[in-house]
What does this fold into?
Amino acid sequence: MLDRALRPIRSKINQLIQRGIVHQVDDSRPIQSLQVAFDSEDVQDNVLRVQNYGFTSCPPNKSESVVLSPCGERDYAMAISVDSPDDRLTGLKEGEVAIYNNANVKILLKSNGKLHISNNGQNLGKLISELIDSIQKFTITVPPSNSPTIVSGPKLDSVKAQFEKLLDVGDA
It folds into this structure.
């Protein structure tokens, strides 16, 4: 008798904080909503996804989520965290921050103060540095005198030095 009386209270307590798997994302509204499965028979539509101001993403299906339901009421469910373990960057050093996606594009704010940008493993900082080096080898002919002008010297060296202070130009 007591067990039956406590069952609704237990259910509400169990629904306060739950872990689920994202099955669908609706990113067309001002607040993104998810369809989240808590188990094979317990699927909730219209779970609002709370995101931090200035940052937004559309998580892939099968992402993991942490869902809060105030007072155990699923009608007010909110996903407070969503993560895709298959895509998450690992091996960051203390204090480093990364922005990434499932296409292997990443921006890493390194602990040494530099910015590392890569696309599919190619370090864009290194590519730009190499481009500056190659520009230094060109000559440009400028009308009306049609005399060759060599693009190099201290200005490009200065640009490259400033660039390398900000961006990581090492290997990907």
